[in-house]
Amino acid sequence: MKLPKLRIGNLIPKFPIIQGGMAVLVSTASLAGAVAKTGGIGVIGATGMSLERLKEEIRKARSLAAGGIIGVNIMYAARQFAELVRTAINEGVDVIFTGAGFSRDVFRWGKEAGIPVVSIVSSAKAAYIAEKYGAAAVVAEGVEAGGHLGTDRSVREIVPEIKKVVKIPVIAAGGIVNGQDMADMVKLGASGVQMATRFVLSEECSVAKEFKQMYLRAAQEDTVIIKSPVGLPARAIKNPFVELIQQGQAPKPQRCMSCLKECSKDYCILKALTNSRGGLVNDGIVFAGKNVFKIKEILPVPVIFERLLAEYNAV
């Protein structure tokens, strides 16, 4: 089965593989630049970054990408959403991904700058609205994904439903970790796939080794759904901090940094993600997709692509 040609606006990556933009300094320039250079779309997770840090990451990713496609992912729920989008536009990023809420303005800003905007959605209704307002493509994300979730339904159910109501490309996301998964999504009508969890276990991902070890040790039953202060459920790997959340005993924020437009303040999501990213994995949250247990190697990004494509071709 031939790989589909993914077109987002005027952008056509060599391979229809998007590296998910994981927030709070998980998807940084080193990873995004490597993915872009290899022929996919490399995405910087802008949420949780200062505006100056985002500028630095985009510029560094550009220097590594060898002309490849660099995007940013910006969560609408972030208080600095508009400022982060403007910063990305001013730095000449190639594409903007956005989810965890819906902004009409971002499509206008993208159109004015000539930068395509891709909406991350979890229903046919949301995909239809995104296309109506100007989305160049949609990422159809199922419950199998890591991090914040917009549905309790499988990507395998969502992709065909969205394909029926939109004409723009549909990119499948959630639980995709190998070439078989890619082939399954293409058979359902997806024009490409977004993968985040697989790329955490790359040499180029800059998270602490303790974070990657949590991934490598994860068993099939080790990812659970937790409540996030963002107001959405989220998928994470079980650890002592997650157990406190499930028991309603997670420590309340001592000082609110107002990183979100709205926050339940049950605990500080920014601190929890920062702790785990830096190696304090028992004092934070380690987001991961449902199929993290299938990945048992840390590999360079080019080798990950080789494996994915070989597995896909074998199918």
Write the layout of secondary structure elements.
Layout: E1 17-19, H1 29-38, E2 41-45, H2 51-65, E3 69-75, H3 81-90, E4 95-99, H4 105-113, E5 117-121, H5 124-133, E6 137-141, E7 147-148, H6 155-165, E8 170-173, H7 179-187, E9 192-195, H8 197-200, H9 209-217, E10 223-227, E11 233-237, H10 240-246, H11 269-277, H12 301-314
Parallel strand pairs: 1-9, 2-3, 3-4, 4-5, 5-6, 6-8, 8-9
Antiparallel strand pairs: 7-11, 10-11
Helix pairs in contact: 1-2, 2-3, 3-4, 5-6, 7-12
CATH architecture of the largest domain: Alpha-Beta Barrel
- Strand coverage percent: 15-25%
Under CATH, the homologous superfamily of the largest domain reads Aldolase class I
Coarse morphology? globular
| Record field, number of beta strands | 11
The largest sheet is: 8 strands, parallel
Q: Indicate the percent of residues in helices.
A: 25-40%
* C-alpha termini separation: 8 Å
What value does the Rg take, in angstroms?
18 Å
Helical segment count: 12
Structure description:
This protein is α/β, with parallel strands linked by helices. The protein has two domains: 17-206 and 296-314, Aldolase class I (TIM Barrel), CATH 3.20.20; 209-283, no CATH class. It has helices spanning 29-38, 51-65, 81-90, 105-113, 124-133, 155-165, 179-187, 197-200, 209-217, 240-246, 269-277, 301-314, and strands at 17-19, 41-45, 69-75, 95-99, 117-121, 137-141, 147-148, 170-173, 192-195, 223-227, 233-237. The strands form two sheets. The chain has an eight-stranded parallel beta sheet. Strands 7-11-10 form a three-stranded antiparallel beta sheet, covered by helices on one side. A hairpin with a 5-residue loop joins strand 10 (223-227) and strand 11 (233-237). Helix 1 packs parallel to helix 2 (51-65). It is globular. The model has no long low-confidence stretch (mean pLDDT 96). InterPro entries: Aldolase_TIM, NMO. GO terms for molecular function: nitronate monooxygenase activity. This is Probable nitronate monooxygenase. It comes from Calderihabitans maritimus.
